[in-house]
């Protein structure tokens, strides 16, 4: 699935004029000296946020897998008929 790998690589790439925060991994505008996403968040809260984000991403990945299986199954049944 080359298109999937391509999309992942593109989303990881740094966007123009934005900096990737080393603390929370989110992008923020370059003129800012500190990240607006996590500058006011404590370490414990940040960990919780990151865990939630990871869980969301994993859930999305599973959904994509189910959709892919359904598409393959649909094509298989279509070819049978
Ligand atoms: Zn941050």
Protein architecture, described:
The protein contains 2 helices and 2 strands. It starts with a helix and ends with a helix. The relative contact order is 0.07. The protein is elongated. With 81 residues, the protein is mostly helical. The protein has helices at residues 2-12, 43-80; strands at residues 18-20, 27-29. A hairpin with a 6-residue loop joins strand 1 (18-20) and strand 2 (27-29). The protein has a two-stranded antiparallel sheet. The chain folds into 2 domains: 1-40, no CATH class; 41-81. The mean pLDDT is 83. Bound molecules: zinc ion (ZN). Zinc ion is lined by residues 21, 23-24, 26, 35, 37-38.
What's the short version?
The protein has 81 residues and is mainly alpha-helical.
Protein topology:
Layout (H helix, E strand, L loop, with lengths): L1 H11 L5 E3 L6 E3 L13 H38 L1
Antiparallel strand pairs: 1-2
List low-pLDDT spans: none
Total domain count: 2
Structural class: mainly alpha
Please tell me how large the radius of gyration is. Answer: 19 Å
| First and last CA, distance | 26 Å
Give average pLDDT, whole number: 83
Main pleated-sheet profile:
2 strands, antiparallel
Number of strands: 2
Helix-strand sequence: HEEH
Rough outline? elongated
Spatial order of the strands forming the largest sheet: 1-2
Which features does this protein show?
81 residues; 2 helices; binds zinc ion
